[in-house]
Design goal:
It is a single chain. The protein is an all-alpha fold and 531 residues long. The protein folds into 3 domains: 391 residues, Up-down Bundle (Na+/H+ antiporter like fold), CATH 1.20.1530.20; 58 residues; 52 residues, no CATH class. It has 22 helices and no strands. Helix 16 runs antiparallel to helix 18. The termini are far apart.
C-alpha cells in the first residue's frame, strides 16, 4: 500500500482520534492504548513504510514536545522542588547513563558470540534510555489523587532530564561516529551546552514576551510562540549549544511571565489550547510509531540483547533514584521510601526515547541492534511498568483502593434518575400517562432521588478530590455556557461587537485562572506530602 506522507499523516490522525475516543470508555491510558494499536497495525502491515525522517523527528517534533511541557510548568512550583528535581535531572541522569552503560557493556562481554558492542555504543544507549516520559503515569496520578509534590517532582524531572539526556546523546553520538573524544573537553562542552542553551532560551522567551505585550491578537501571539520555540532551538544549535535547553528556557518564560503580563485572557486560553493540541498530535504520532516501528526489528535473534537492555535500564533507573535520594534528603525535604519506589517504577520511557532512536544516523554501526534495544525498553516500560503503576501506588498506600468508585456509582444513579424524571414529565405531556398514575409514581421517584442525594453526600465526604474535580468541571462548563450566551446576544443584535469582546475577555480571564491550576492539579494535601 503505497501511501504518501499526506495520506499517512491523515490516517495517523484518524487512528489517534479513534483511540482517544475509545479510551474514554476504558481504564487504559491513552498513550499505552496508542502503542498497542500501533503494534497491531505493524503486525498487519497497515502502514508498511513510514516516511518520518530523523531530521523531521528531531527538529520539528522535539521542540513542540518540550516547549509545551515547559509552558505548562508553574515556575513557583518548580522553585519549591528545584533541589529535588535538579538532583534527579543532573547527577541522576549521569548516574543512570553510566550504570546502564556499564551493565550493558559487561553483559555483551559475557555473551559468547555476541556483537562487538563498544563502550561508545553502551553509553549512547544509556543516554537515550535515561530520558523519561511519564505522560501516562501522570494521567494515572491525577485520576487516583496522588500527592501534588510527588507529581511535580516526576514532571519536573522529566522535562530537565530530557534536556540533559539529549545533550549527552549528542556528545556520545560523536564519539561512536569516530570523532576525537576527550573526557575533560566533553565535560566542558556539556556544561556550556546546558547552561548556554538555557540562558539563550530565557533571553529569547523574555524578548518575545515583550514583543507580545505590544499586540493583542491571539493569532499573532500564537505565531510568535511558534517562531520562538523553533528559533530558540535553531539558534542554539547554530551556536553549538543545547537547542533542547533553549526550548525549555523559552517555554518556561513564555508560560509563566509571557502569559501574565504580555497576553490578554483570551490570548492566554488560545495559546495554551494551541500548544496542548500540537503536543497531542506529536505524542499521538510518536506513540503510534513506537508500536508500528517494532515490525522493522527482528527481535528473535536479539532476545539476549533485549533482555539485557531492559535489565540494564532498570539498574540505571534504580541507581538514579536510590543513590540520589540521600542527597535530596540533605538539600530538600526527604523522599519517603514509598515515593522512591514510585519514582523508580514510574520512570516510563516514551516519546523522547523514540525521537532519539529515530534520529540515529542510518549508517551508524549496530544501528538496528540499538533500535531493537531501545524499542524493547520503551515497550517494556509502557506496557509492563505503565500498566502496573496503579498496583505499585496501592502497594505503597499512596491511594485508596476504592478511589473514587462509590462516589462515581452514586453520581451515575442520580444522573440516571434525572433522566427518569424527565421521561416521566414527557410521558404526561404526551398523554402517555394519566395524571393519577403520575401522582402515584412521582412521589416514589422523588423519595428515591432524595435518598440517593443523601448517599451522594456521604460518599463525597470520603472522596474530596473527586468532589473538587467535579466542582472544577462544573465551573468550567458554566463559563463556556456563559461565552455561548454572550455570542448569542451579539448574533441577536442585543450587544455590539465591542461589548461582546469585552465580556468574552472577562469570561476568558476567569476561565484561564480556572484552567491553569488544573494542568498541575493532583490531589489535596496529604499527610505524606508534609515530609
Amino acid at each position: 500500500m503505497g501511501l504518501g506522507i499526506e495520506a499517512q499523516a491523515l490516517w495517523l490522525l484518524i487512528i489517534a482520534a479513534a483511540v482517544a475516543m475509545f479510551t474514554k470508555y476504558i481504564r487504559l491510558p491513552y498513550t499505552i492504548a496508542l502503542v498497542v494499536v500501533g503494534i497491531v497495525m505493524g503486525a498487519l502491515d497497515l502502514l508498511p513504510k513510514m516516511l518520518l525522517t530523523p531530521e523531521l523527528v528531531f527538529h520539528i517534533f522535539l521542540p513542540i514536545l518540550l516547549f509545551e511541557a515547559a509552558f505548562n510548568i508553574d515556575i513557583l512550583d518548580l522553585q519549591k522542588n528545584a533541589r529535588s528535581i535538579a538532583m534527579l535531572a543532573l547527577p541522576g541522569v549521569l548516574l543512570a547513563t553510566t550504570v546502564t552503560a556499564v551493565v550493558t557493556y559487561l553483559g555483551f562481554q559475557l555473551w559468547n558470540g555476541g556483537p562487538d558492542f563498544s563502550w561508545g555504543h553502551a553509553f549512547l544507549f544509556g543516554a537515550i534510555v535515561a530520558a523519561t516520559d511519564p505522560i501516562s503515569v501522570l494521567a494515572i496520578f491525577k485520576e487516583l489523587g496522588v500527592t501534588r509534590r510527588l507529581s511535580l517532582i516526576i514532571e519536573g524531572e522529566s522535562i530537565f532530564n530530557d534536556g540533559v539526556a539529549v545533550v549527552l546523546f549528542g556528545v556520545l553520538l560523536g564519539m561512536v561516529q569516530g570523532e576525537d573524544f576527550n573526557l575533560l573537553s566533553a565535560g566542558r562542552h556539556f556544561v556550556v551546552s546546558v547552561v548556554g542553551g538555557g540562558g539563550i532560551g530565557v533571553l529569547l522567551g523574555l524578548t518575545v514576551a515583550k514583543v507580545m505585550s505590544l499586540v493583542d491578537d491571539h493569532l499573532i501571539e500564537i505565531t510568535l510562540t511558534t517562531i520562538l520555540a523553533f528559533s530558540a532551538y535553531l539558534l542554539a544549535e547554530h551556536l553549538h549549544i543545547s537547542g533542547v535547553m533553549a526550548v525549555i528556557g523559552a517555554g518556561l518564560m513564555t508560560g509563566n511571565y509571557g502569559t501574565r503580563w504580555a497576553m490578554s485572557p483570551t490570548t492566554r486560553v488560545s495559546v495554551s489550547d494551541f500548544w496542548e493540541y500540537a503536543a497531542f498530535v506529536v505524542n499521538s504520532v510518536l506513540f503510534l510509531m513506537i508500536g508500528i516501528e517494532v515490525k522493522i526489528v527482528d527481535f528473535g535473534p536479539l532476545w539476549v540483547a533485549v533482555l539485557l537492555a531492559v535489565a540494564a535500564m532498570l539498574c540505571g533507573r534504580a541507581a538514579a533514584v536510590f543513590c540520589t535520594a540521600p542527597l535530596i534528603g540533605k538539600v530538600d525535604k526527604p523522599l519517603p521510601g514509598s515515593w522512591q519506589g514510585v519514582l523508580f517504577w514510574g520512570g516510563i520511557r516514551g516519546a523522547i526515547c523514540m525521537v532519539l532512536a529515530l534520529s540515529l544516523p542510518i549508517d551508524l554501526p549496530l544501528r538496528q541492534l540499538l533500535m531493537a534495544m531501545i524499542f524493547a525498553v520503551v515497550i517494556f516500560t509502557l506496557l509492563v511498568q505503565g500498566l502496573s503503576v496503579k498496583m505499585v501506588l496501592q502497594k505503597f498506600g499512596l491511594i485508596r483502593s476504592d478511589f473514587p468508585q462509590s462516589y462515581e456509582t452514586r453520581k451515575g444513579e442520580v444522573f440516571a434518575l434525572g433522566r427518569v424524571q424527565l421521561e416521566l414529565e414527557q410521558m404526561v405531556g404526551r398523554g402517555l400517562l394519566s395524571q393519577s398514575n403520575y401522582e402515584l409514581l412521582a412521589p416514589r421517584l422523588q423519595d428515591r432521588v432524595k435518598e440517593l442525594h443523601m448517599d451522594l453526600e456521604e460518599a463525597a465526604a470520603d472522596h474530596q478530590n473527586a468532589v473538587s474535580e467535579e466542582l472544577h468541571l462544573a465551573e468550567e462548563r458554566l463559563l463556556y455556557a456563559e461565552k455561548d450566551g454572550i455570542k448569542e446576544a451579539y448574533l441577536a443584535g442585543v450587544i455590539s461587537e465591542k461589548v461582546m469582546k469585552k465580556l468574552l475577555s472577562q469570561v476568558d480571564e476567569r476561565l484561564f485562572s480556572l484552567e491553569r491550576p488544573t494542568k498541575k492539579r493532583s490531589a489535596p494535601t496529604d499527610p505524606k506530602e508534609r515530609v
